[in-house]
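We give its fold:
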Amino acid sequence: MIKKNYIIRRAMRTRRRMAIRKRLQGTTERPRLAVFRSLSNIYAQIINDTTGTTLVSMSTIAKDFDAPKSKRVDVSFQVGLKLGEKAVAAGIKTVCFDRSGYKYHGRVKALADGARKAGLEF
């Protein structure tokens, strides 16, 4: 029963993700900020979809990220802050936010708030 519920939740997230990706397209002027969330880590990338390249990335397991021992929401905020700083240093000012089928709540929202505080606009 537990495995069946997991499969259904994952399939529904995939459907939401595809519906979101139909509308979002990262360009050279406005790349896409994609988020992936696992149970223990969070990953974020800024992607140019026209060339298919990752411009900037940051995660909780990145070598240049000092993970503080605190709540996962606070760590996600720090990941967004670091990602925003790297993006601004690379000359990226505006992005479109791809939440990848997750609710805009909790860790996903904290990452977005951190990126906004660092200077990204979306």
Observations:
- The chain has a mean pLDDT of 93.
